[in-house]
Amino acid sequence: MPDNELTYASIDELAPRIRSGEISPVELTQASLDRIERLEPQLNAFLEVFSEAALAQARAAESEIRAGRYRGPLHGITVALKDLVDVEGTVTTGGSTILKDNVAGSDATVTRLLKDAGAIIIGKAALVEFAMGATGMNPHYGASHNPWNLDRICCGSSMGSAAAVAGGLSVGAIGSDTGGSIRMPAAVTGIAGLKPTYGRVSRAGVLDLSWSCDHVGPMTRTVADCAHMMNAIAGHDPRDPASSEQPVPDFTTGLTQGLQGLKIGVPLEYFYDDIDPEVEAAVRAGITLMEREGATVREVSMPWVSEGRKINLGVNRPESFSVHEEWLKKYADQYSIEVRARLESASTIPAVEYIRAQRARRWFNEQMALATKDVDVLVTPTVPIQTPTIEECILRPGGDTISPTTNLLGIFTGVFDTTGEPSLSLNCGFTADGMPIGMMISGKPFDEVTVLRAGAGFEAAAGLADKRPPID
After folding, report:
1. Which among 24, 82, 158, 210 is annotated as catalytic?
2. Is residue 314 part of a domain?
3. So what's the pLDDT on residue 463?
4. How many Cα atoms sit within 13 Å of 256 on the Cβ side?
5. Residue 346 needs a FRET pair 20 to 30 A away by CA distance; which of 196, 257, 259, 434 works?
6. In angstroms, rounded to a whole number, what is the distance separating the alpha carbons of residues 472 and 202?
7. Does residue 437 contact residue 278 with C-beta atoms inside 8 Å?
8. What CATH number does residue 44 fall under?
9. Any domain includes 427
């Protein structure tokens, strides 16, 4: 079977065939490695590929399954990890040169849980330096290229995870999201990306950017695959002080319920102001489709919602500086222009401003809860603009120190990093030049099941999940 037929298959499609022995985990892993070898020079999705270790894991999975010790839907499935996530005995660079010798002494909790579920860790995905940036540019290791158009960015700091999944190099991936870096790359590469509720998935063993805004979550080609990965990685972890003790549901339970009776809120303000017309048309068409499928759509007034992104930045910038303060003193010349400028700017923010941002965050979250009490989810665009080119995002000596595009890409996603609510991006259509458009479905705290239900219902009705980029 051609490698793309295997690696573009969903977990739902692969798992029963792996369990029955029709497909071997070794066959799937080798298909991923073959595709990486062929396409990685074009995509630049990985910082490191674990070829030998992955094949060893695959052989072990094959033996277990043959012996009747099948672990579940992720057993034998290839997964890429954003290179913020520790894998014992391997380097976690965070996309930097400062940490080029940073060998992890143990697995991150999310790594361990994936391994416990039988997943094959295929490699470390590329990212923006220290996850600080929305354009997907990294001057140390290069940008990841969008499989739908190699001249375009993959967006967000989880750029390599998105390129790996969208390009069929890996069945699933793990990303992180502090201002939108799971959902933005998912939007521009046409895949599904879920930012779980803050505290739902452990961040132990994952490099910090902003401890009160950081989320870890799955990136896959279908909504159902996000649910399968959540079943493996969610849960309380004493290693993470922010980890929630909320009961963990089966995240797949709502996937086949459809949209009938679901109450969808559409914000009147901000999310549809001054956005690209093609983006707006695609998202509005998606909402109309959801209504035809039985959802109830109502407009929701939230005139204060534009403050969400500002609060997100007001919190995460001082927190990120505190993470980097000592490194910045020692290794300032090893930071990229954009990241160093961002950190140095954050260093001047008074402590009182950080406290005000956290107080404003509490107020904002109360307003969000009141505004959404009569709806199940909010539906909005993920990204307000069409996918920029890599050339447009390159910083030139003597020019801007932060890409102007950075300030636009995350204006919607950051709202739900402020609230910590679950938020999913999935493909809702394409621009005239063939680039994916993302629709964002955001729900109430710890109600990922409803968010995933809404996403799966739309996905089934829209029929877009099987679309593939032209790269091969």
Report:
1. 82
2. no
3. 96
4. 2
5. 196
6. 35
7. yes
8. 3.90.1300.10
9. yes
* Count of C-beta atoms within a 10 Å radius of residue 367: 17
Query: 216, 203 in Cβ contact below 8 A?
Result: yes
Name the token pair of 372: 């959404």
Contacts of 333 (CB under 8 A, 6+ apart): none
Separation between Cα atoms, residue 32 and residue 79, nearest integer Å: 10
Active site residue: 157, 161, 170, 442, which one? Answer: 157
Element (H, E) at 284: helix 277-292
Cβ contacts of 403 within 8 Å, gap of 6 or more = 133, 134, 135, 137, 338, 393, 395
Query: What's the pLDDT at 394?
Result: 84
Q: Is residue 316 part of a domain?
A: no
Question: H-type helices in 117-168, by residue range?
Answer: 159-166
Number of domains in the chain: 1
The answer on pLDDT for 355 being more than 90 is yes
Using CA atoms, how far apart are residues 67 and 78, in angstroms rounded to an integer? Answer: 21
Residue listed under structure tokens 């579940």: 72
Residue 319, in any domain of the structure: no
Mark residue 422 as left, alpha or beta (left: phi above 0; alpha: psi -120 to 50; beta: remaining): beta
| Residue 1 pLDDT | 52
Q: What is the dihedral of CA 421, 425, 426, 432, to 10 degrees?
A: 150
Q: Which amino acid is at 314?
A: G
- For residue 181, indicate whether it is catalytic: yes
Structure-token match 């259509």, residue found = 429
Q: Sign of dihedral through CA atoms 137, 142, 146, 150?
A: positive
Which element (helix H / strand E) includes 412?
none
Residue keyed to tokens 């680039």: 435
Of the listed 96, 158, 181, 244, which one is catalytic? 181
Q: For 191-217, how does the pLDDT look when each residue is reduced to its tens digit (9 = 90+)?
A: 999 999 999 999 999 999 999 999 999
Q: Which residue has the tokens 């401890």?
A: 211
On the question of pLDDT at 400 being above 80, the answer is no
With CA atoms as reference, report the closest residue to 192 among 239, 233, 246, 230.
230
Between CA 334 and CA 346 the distance in angstroms is 18
Q: What confidence tens digit (pLDDT) does each residue in 37-50 have?
A: 999 999 999 999 99
- Whether residue 158 contacts residue 182, with contact meaning beta carbons closer than 8 Å, is answered with yes
For the stretch 242-285, pLDDT in tens is 999 999 999 999 999 999 999 999 999 999 998 999 999 999 99
User: Is 157 in the active site?
Assistant: yes
Number of residues that this document lists for the chain: 472
Which phi and psi (to 5°) does residue 210 adopt?
A: -145, 105
pLDDT in tens, 120-130: 999 999 999 99
CA distance 297 to 313: 31
Task: State the residue for tokens 């949209």.
Answer: 259
Q: Residue 397 — very low, low, confident or very high, per pLDDT cuts 50/70/90?
A: low
